[in-house]
Every structure is written in structure tokens, then in C-alpha cells.
Write a structure and sequence with these properties.
The protein has 8 helices and 4 strands. The protein has about 150 residues and is an alpha+beta fold. It has a 4-stranded antiparallel sheet. The radius of gyration is 15 Å and the shape is globular. It binds 2'-deoxyadenosine-5'-diphosphate (DAT) and magnesium ion. 2'-deoxyadenosine-5'-diphosphate binds next to loops. This is nucleoside-diphosphate kinase.
């Protein structure tokens, strides 16, 4: 579709397993633009707000415990169709269904330890960016854009 922004997060297991650089590398090499990034441990209330849509699920409490177990890397990436393309790069929610070559397909085994998050739609991306980056993001014009976009 169009130029978009998405919220990408490296979950506590991704941080603990030293996959931060690997995951950032894939988005950076693809040609997407880093707009914001921080290492944070925001607490349960914030994580419950992030996953509010899943509050009725049986795995919700376990999900919040897992997400609260250590710092996460919160990022905003921009680019053409980056919401859907970013989800493709992460792979299916269940690593057992994630294709090899995707982040989850290459580095994760279980759904409850799937190492990364990506917004599922433009509207939820904007909601998540507002939740995680109340301070706003960084506006800049990458000089490489002329070599990524025609
Ligand atoms: P995604 O992260 O691919 O957007 P989701 O929004 O449906 O998937 O769920 C959010 C997270 O919750 C997911 O990354 C891992 C966890 N989760 C989802 N389904 C689960 C299940 N059936 N059992 C355990 N954890 C699950
Ligand atoms: Mg989701």
C-alpha cells in the first residue's frame, strides 16, 4: 500500500538470547527506516494495555508474566507497506508454522517464546506507537532513500 510506520518489539527472550542485533539488522538491511528505539521494562500495566485485545485469552496472564520478565527493545520502523512486510519478516505467530528465513522460523520454537512482536494493521501500529513512544519519534530523511525507492 503506502508509506507506513509499524511498532516492532524484541521480547525479553530475544534480548536475553542476544538476538537484538540480528533482528535490527534484518529491518535495517531490508531498507526500512529506524524512527525510534529504546530498551525498556515498562511494567505489567503497560504490557496489559499493549495486549488489551487478548485480555480474555487463557494464555493472557502467562503472556504478561513473560513480557514482564526482562527488558524489551521497543522500535518504530517506517517504509513502504512496512506493517504487512514487517509481519512477514517476523513469521507466523506460532514458530512451528513460521517459514524458515523468517525471524521466528529461524530463531524460535514455542509460541510462548516467539521473541518478537509486530503490529498487525496500520491502525494498531499507530495505537502501539502512541502507547510506547509518548515522547514521539525521530523525524529524519535517510540519504539512502534514493537507492531504496525509485
Ligand atoms: P502476534 O504476536 O503474531 O501478533 P497475537 O497478537 O495473536 O500474535 O498474540 C500475541 C502473543 O500472544 C503472541 O506473539 C504469543 C502469544 N500467544 C498467542 N497465541 C498464543 C497461544 N495459543 N498460546 C500461548 N501464547 C500465545
Ligand atoms: Mg498481535
Amino acid at each position: 500500500s503506502t508509506m507506513e510506520r509499524t511498532y516492532i518489539m524484541i521480547k525479553p527472550d530475544g534480548v536475553q538470547r542476544n538476538l537484538v542485533g540480528e533482528i535490527i539488522k534484518r529491518f535495517e538491511q531490508k531498507g526500512y527506516q529506524l524512527l525510534a528505539m529504546k530498551l525498556v521494562r515498562p511494567g505489567k500495566e503497560h504490557l496489559q494495555a499493549h495486549y488489551a485485545d487478548l485480555a480474555g485469552k487463557g494464555f493472557f496472564n502467562g503472556l504478561i508474566e513473560y513480557m514482564n520478565s526482562g527488558p524489551v527493545v521497543a522500535m518504530v520502523w517506517g517504509g513502504f507497506n512496512v506493517v504487512a512486510e514487517g509481519r512477514k519478516m517476523l513469521g507466523a505467530t506460532k514458530p512451528s508454522e513460521s517459514a524458515p528465513g523468517t525471524i521466528r522460523g529461524d530463531f524460535a520454537v514455542e509460541v510462548g517464546r516467539n521473541i518478537c512482536h509486530g503490529s498487525d494493521a496500520v491502525a494498531s501500529a499507530e495505537k502501539e506507537i502512541a502507547l510506547w513512544f509518548k515522547e514521539g519519534v525521530c523525524e529524519w530523511n535517510p540519504s539512502r532513500n534514493a537507492w531504496v525507492y525509485e
